[in-house]
Every structure is written in C-alpha cells, then in structure tokens.
Amino acid sequence: MEFIRSSLIISDQLSVISYQLLGYQLSASEGKRQESKGNRGNK
C-alpha cells in the first residue's frame, strides 16, 4: 500500500507540473500571436 500511495503522490506532482508547463506554452503562443498582429498593424 505504501508504494501505491507514494506513486499516486508522484503522479499528482507530475500532473501539476505538466499543467503549469501547458499553461506557460499557451500564454507564450498567445503572446506571439499578439506580436504578429501588432506587426501586421504597423505595415
């Protein structure tokens, strides 16, 4: 039982980390999209 509990904790931490990474990638791509919009507006 101890092994199962510790592996569950590890998977919880991994899911939190992957969720944060996903959010970071989404915000980064959103920033790039806004930059391209601004460049198009300047032209």
| Major pleated sheet | none
**SSE topology string:** H
Structural class: mainly alpha
Compute the gyration radius: what is it?
Answer: 19 Å
Mean pLDDT: 83
* Strand residue content: under 5%
Distance between the termini: 64 Å
Low-confidence stretches: none
* H/I helix tally: 1
State the share of residues found in helices, binned by percent: over 70%
Describe the 3D structure.
By secondary structure, the chain is mostly helical. It is 95% helix and 0% strand. It is built from one helix and no strands. The longest helix is centred in the middle third of the chain and has 41 residues, at 2-42. It starts with a helix and ends with a helix. The mean pLDDT is 83.
Write the layout of secondary structure elements.
Layout: H1 2-42
Short overview:
95% of the residues lie in helices and 0% in strands. It has one helix at residues 2-42. The protein is rod-shaped, with a radius of gyration of 19 Å.
